[in-house]
Write a structure and sequence with these properties.
Blueprint (H helix, E strand, L loop, with lengths): L19 H14 L4 H21 L4 H18 L8 H5 L3 H6 L2 H7 L6 H9 L3 E3 L2 E2 L15 E3 L7
Antiparallel strand pairs: 1-2, 1-3
Helix pairs in contact: 2-3, 6-7
């Protein structure tokens, strides 16, 4: 069962830890998206790996079962904001880790212009100044669903003198 106080890992580490080209790519992504550590990157890679595995499993199916499962996967990814409504399983296989990282709250707050840098966006979120709808979100890794972009707002309290 496991200890209820100890959360299960949500990521898988790379198979070979010291490949120079992978390390350079990871370091570039950490800086570009303002990630705190490689665990955040590995979490995004694990999410992508699971989505791609579901898409690959569709190619084994035939007939109505495949159409139904593919429609279900595409609708879920459409709600997540990763693919278009008329996407296919081939489009799902073309997703990259950048597509996952672009949907993080930290990245979207920066792209909307609420923060001057990706690091300031992270600070605003962790300090509790960012709201999605009526809910205060303090997790920079929050995955922003389609339609929630317009609900994001930053409310910085005015200090009294």
């Amino acid at each position: 069962m496991g200890d209820p106080k100890r959360a299960r890992k949500r990521y898988e580490t790379p198979g070979h830890p010291w490949k120079a080209d992978r390390l350079a790519t990871e370091l570039h992504l950490l800086g570009e998206y303002g990630l705190r550590n490689k665990k955040e990157l590995w979490t995004a890679e694990t999410i992508l790996r699971k989505i791609r595995a579901q898409a690959r499993s569709l190619f084994v199916l035939t007939g109505e079962k495949r159409v139904q499962e593919e429609r279900r996967l595409i609708s879920r990814l459409y709600k997540m904001g990763l693919v278009d409504e008329d996407a296919t399983a081939d489009n799902v296989l073309q997703l990259t880790v950048r597509d996952i990282l672009e949907r993080r709250l930290q990245t979207i707050v920066f792209k909307l212009g609420y923060a001057k840098s990706i690091y300031q966006a992270r600070q605003l979120i962790t300090h509790g100044h960012v709201y999605v709808g009526d809910n205060k979100v303090r997790s920079p890794s929050y995955h922003v669903m389609r339609g929630e972009e317009s609900l994001i707002r930053v409310a910085i309290p005015i200090e009294a003198k």
